[in-house]
Amino acid sequence: MGIRSFFGLDCEAAANACDRAAYNEAGLADKLRLRFHLFLCPPCKDYTRKSEKLSYLIKKADLKSCTDEEKAVLRQRMDEKNSESLN
Ligand SMILES: [Zn+2]
């Protein structure tokens, strides 16, 4: 077990918690563990920043009528950008 999963979150779980936090679906324990993880893991911190930016843009655009399918497309685009920056 590496230090990044010391608080019970590996990077994948952190990304999931980050996504749920962006949609206010994360519990307090999730948010705390996510914060600890981000403190220790710069790549996830970067991912969270992008995710927060995306959810801000969604709110700004007031896409309340945005379907789950459309949200999935937006998330996928974000993931593609993330993997581009990793390569
Ligand atoms: Zn991580």
Describe this structure in words.
The chain is mostly helical and 87 residues long. The chain has one domain (3-86). Helices cover 72% and strands 0% of the residues. Bound molecules: zinc ion (ZN). Residues 4, 11, 14, 37, 41, 43-44 line the site of zinc ion (ZN). Zinc ion is lined by residues 4, 11, 14, 37, 41, 43-44. This is Zinc-finger domain-containing protein.
In short:
The protein is mainly α.
Bound molecules: zinc ion
| Number of helical stretches of at least 4 residues | 4
Low-confidence stretches: none
Query: Roughly what percent helix?
Result: over 70%
Overall shape: it is globular
Quaternary structure type: single chain
How many structural domains in the coordinates? 1
* Biggest pleated-sheet summary: none
Percentage beta strand = under 5%
Give the class from helix and strand content and strand pairing. mainly alpha
Q: Please report the distance between the alpha carbons of the first and last residues.
A: 25 Å
Radius of gyration: 13 Å
SSE order: HHHH
Protein name: Zinc-finger domain-containing protein
Organism: Salinimicrobium catena
